[in-house]
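User: structure tokens for this one?
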Amino acid sequence: MSKVVTVAWREFKQTVLRKVFLLAILGIPILMVGVMALVVLAMAGHQEPPLVGTIAIVDPSGEVAPAAEIEFDPKRVAGQQQKQVEEIEAAVGDLLRPGALPVTTFEMGDFGGRGTVDVQIEAHEQDDQETIDALKDRVWRRDLIAVAVVTDAVLANPDPEVRRTKRPRFDLYVAEGVDTDHASFIEDRLGEAIVRVRAERASLNADEATAMLRRPLSNTRRLLEGGQESREAEGDRKFKQLIPIVFMMLLWGGVIVSAQHLMMSTIEEKSNRVMEVLLSAVSPLQLMTGKIFGHCGVGLLIVVIYSALPLAGLFAFGQQHRIEMENIAYLFVFFFMAYFMMGSIMAAIGSAVTDIREANTLVTPVMLLMMVPLMLWLPISQAPNGSIATAFSFIPPAIPFVMILRLAADEPVPWWQIPATILWGYACVVGMVWMAAKIFRVGVLMYGKPPSPLQLLKWLRYS
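Assistant:
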């Protein structure tokens, strides 16, 4: 046992104490926090440049220009922006409630905001090509911000079925120096002006019709045990949808990185003939066991570091209630299961080859299997008790990844499946480690042509 511990500590120390490893594992979180801080500061200090100038509208009917003057009115623009802020606040929910953030003042308007809007509308009823070319030349010379050409087909009220399949378009020519956000703003305002003209032609009040068609927000509450209610905003639901993939990515990243380090160190020691020196002091089983446990510590360190960061953020913002602490315990239960499955596979592959290119041939099918939970994370997290989720919960090596997705989802997993998958998963671990030991014992001292998958299966029969 002491030899296994010695090998494990050697593997852990040689991996963790490397400058490259420390820079990658510890530097990336620091870099991410720094980048996020810079983004927040940039957003807080960002202010859209003012939109000042004249927009020419070519419209034979002469109805769009008056409607556009209404839509570009600065007071109307400011009022609509305030409504958008209120809708965002209602959607985000708890994060914007007083005291939820560790700052005394926080307003959505602080994060940028549209600058001054002072747009004049210039109407042109002549829609001949000469007039349009002259206006485009003024846009090119920056005398105009933009010129819009609106035809009668755009203003007509076509049949709803026709409008669903083919929406009419108007032409908009924008000066080269106009900000991208301003160009989108001009498109939206002119589109609203055209809608206003259509409504007036149908003898409707455009503002009343728009208000009537605006989707109302809901006050969604979950009914909890004991008759209590829990408010659930749209932002809360989106946050809950992200939790399963965050848990699985923590598990997936820690397992893959540490298992690949295990395979690379095994290949390196075998190709440099260091393996022969080690085997003179320990048995193949002791060497493999020590290497697996040593790199298990590496993966565990990665998971601890990367799970501590989001947890610290949630506690800092007073949002720790969004994470169920039992899921943190399950994360580590399934980490050991996932690692020993992948670690045994990587140790076996590393012992059978002498070059990373040879290893890639054998690793590719395994990595494809590992990608299945990533590709199916959305259907599994949305239907954690569906047939797909339940089936993959019992198929190694997907068991730990699928189960952490299901447990972190909003719908509870049947109680019996949790111990059943844990027992079955660790039984698979025992079988996979046993097979890896068989391959490792034969492969560490074999050189030459790399074995095929069929030959690896034959090695399992050797006593």
